[in-house]
Amino acid sequence: MDAIVYYITLPFIYLLSILPFPVLYAFSDFLYFILFTCIGYRKEVILQNLRNSFPDKTGHEIEIIRKAFCHNLCDFMVETFKILTISEKDILEHCKFNKEGFEVFKKYADEGRSVIMVMGHLGNWEWAGHPFSLKCQHKLVVLYHPLANKYFDRLMLRMRSRFGTKMIPMQTAFKEMLAHRKDLTCTVFISDQTPMPDNAYWTTFLNQDTPVFKGTEVIARKLNMPIIYASMRKVKRGYYEMFAEALVDNPAATREGEISEMHTRRLEKDIILQPESWLWSHRRWKHKRKVTGEEK
User: Which pLDDT score is estimated for 292?
Assistant: First the structure.
């Protein structure tokens, strides 16, 4: 069944990919009408996440953010398919690193130091790696969760690695990084996925008790790789700008939880700056912290 669904869908995906941008975004508008006006895709999840994150905002303000997010999510979907056929020239025109961010990576490359890049589901994260792979000296390595459908998983891997990015399963991250420690690499950790609560760093994020993956800081401290925080801002429809800043130069000298707290605070700041660009349809707060006897 997985193969049937894939081969029926594939021609439509390629058709979307070759559409010029104005037509592609016209289709995105149609997709918005179907998914969010007619079906109401995850409406209650989105609204609950927004209300809990911004308790001081009015219902009208929350609704404005919700609609803007839904439009952005549809754009993200069609832009992702565009990766299949987009040219180097177009991806570099539509998704750019700002000068200061580029210089951060250049500094570490000139020093011969591999780095860890931490970012969130902000803007179009599927586009983010391509300008890096085309312009930066570090070999970009992105951690990912394989899809259940092996056919779509292969398609996504092909799209994500078109311009030289290397993809590795999250489960083998430390082993791979250790094996290639002598290479000049930049390994990307997406920080706002939802870990199991018993093995997470807990903090307050967007006014809510939130579990954060420890993997970024655990691996960074073990390998003592500098951590760079990267973010993506939408300039206008179909155009994004990447920002980057050195977050921790010497992770081995940090306290437990310090790195997790730092990158969580930076992501929170960027979400507040452009809330419609974050992934509000994700069930980010589905886990609750277990209260111990000492905390009661």
Answer: 61
